[in-house]
Amino acid sequence: MQAPDRSPGVQAAEKAPVVQAAEKAPAVQAAVVTPGRDLRLDLFRGIALWLIFLDHIPSNLVAWGTIRNYGFSDATEIFVFVSGYTAAFVYGKEMRERGPFIAGAHILRRVWQIYVAHVFLFAIYLAEISYVATSFENPLYAEEMNILDFLKQPDVTIVEALLLKFKPANMDILPLYIVLLLLFPPILWLLQFRAWLALGASVLLYVLTWHFGWNLPSYPEGVWFFNPFAWQLLFVFGAWCALGGAHRLGPVLQSRVTLGIAIAYLLFAFVIALTWYLPGMGPYVPHWLEELIYPIDKTNLDVLRFAHFLALAVVTVRFIPRDWPGLRSPLLWAPIVCGQHSLEIFCLGVFLSFAAHFAMIEVSGAIWMQFLLSGLGIVVMIGVAGLLTWYKRAERSSGSRPKRPPDADLAGGEA
Amino acid sequence: MKTPMTACEAVDARPISAFTRVFRRAMAGHDGMRLIPAFAAALYLFAGAAFATEPCDIPASLLSGGWDLKHVTEAVAKDKRLTIAVVGTGSSLLAGPDGPRSAYPARLEAVLRQKLPAVDVRVVSLARSRMTAEDLARGMDKVLTDEKPDLVIWQTGTLDAIRRIDPEEFRAALDEGVTTLHKGGADVILMNMQYSPRTDIMVPLGPYADNMRVVAQQHEIPLFDRLAVMRNWSDTGAFDLYAAGKDNVLAQRVHDCIARGIAFMIIDAAHLHPESKAAQ
Question: What one-character-per-residue DSSP string does A110-150 give?
Fold first, then answer.
């Protein structure tokens, strides 16, 4: 996996006329051609990868520290947004330089890579649960063992898995990405010329999805856990921000009123989240408010979740500026390097969560073990990400590298 | 505290510990990245010292939902009678010759009779395996006419999660069932899934557990959070839920403790006065 060549000067020179023609706003141009990479994106995607890993280890006490327990949104929102942002950043540049067909072809190649990664993870999953099925017997859990029914007809199960209809628990994110990226080339094309129109279309699709209940079917029953028609909103919004939207929103983001609203909303979400874990607080939530907010629908990216993510983003952007020196500090190197290799590290995280579950079954599920496995997993993720960076650098410095197309890590990028 | 029967009251005496626990869990998660060994050791000692003593220990915060069981209060006060129907699936049953006697519905009857000797307590188990929430919701009318219960304990969610039923449909079924029971003049306690560490990587319980919490909240009924309660036993070392084996002992002990937890919840939410406590 290699990064595309980046030379801000050339980029700016080539890009400026297109953008200007499309937007007729020089300010936008400055935002689009931002030189270098916004390390904050890598930082937060890296942190999101860690949180997803911690949340995916079943029965993990450490997962209490992850953001999903303190508000409406969780690491998935961060991940989808950042991936939309980086995808637009990487492929948008390519689309301007080499045309929509080349860029579109590269996006589709990326889709294929993610699909292969998903099937690989599914194979590991099958191996683990086949083991659990043969080694586990406990009269307390007679009902839970119904989950193994699908092993009785592997022909159907495996074909449904290849069609992305059968998705084991915790393996819903990659199929979501596959669909989002598959639909991305025309959206990206539109974003370059009519950014507001593209964003409007995305909002319209979101609204229609809620209204008509659109979703993709799942096997054996039900629908996709992450509804791509709803979650595309966050992905397209991320892409829109990357292509000048963030700049347009500048004055709004800087306003004190926005900050105040964001902080108030985060506090509100925190208090509501507390009632989930302390049932005694339940009666203090007024009935009309419950009627209004529940259910907070993760499948269809509830508006409350989206707003919670926006509030988090407003506060974050306010307190961590782009040129914050901390981003270069050795302490934050670890999450940043993980965020820069997101497809590999995401897959590794899913694998590690299976491995951790296996270790908890075979060795011990005690609390010290949960901490040990959580810590160990993150260390392995950092180690592998560091190794990938080193390998990429070594490959680049060998000098024989042919010019390759950009490679956006998990719908987004190493760019 | 000398007899196992008082295990639940023992917890009630220190409700603060539950809050401290949640707080510590949260803190541990935050700092876990850097201070894993130290925190793991501290937390392990803390957990071991404070919570591994009583097998049926349940933090009071998990059992007190704040909602009342009005029909139960009334039935006990007026008629000195209490009829409870358990509507549920496979995890409300135990296999084997002494299964029916040791599953939690039968144990609940025994515990309540002991705690409320002046009340004629009857617990009917209507659990059948392989039923979704929708299947069970449809049968609620029949439950009302057949048993005329003052309280229905509705255990559900496991098969729905395994089959990946649309969570929206699941919620609609819960809503329908609870509405039917309320119209028929019965109180309701919802009970969610078992904590099953060996299989929980395969079954996405989250959305179903969330929906049960929401429905309980909206209808102002208690939720017996079996998931959190059993999780708590696993974390504190009260039960080794990772264990495998054909042996029925663990299952029977867990069911007995679940029965004690529900008994505590009913007595608390209906403001009853257990007499066995006074006798001691």
Answer: HHHHHHHHHHHHHHHHHHHHHHHHHH---GGGTTGGGGGGG
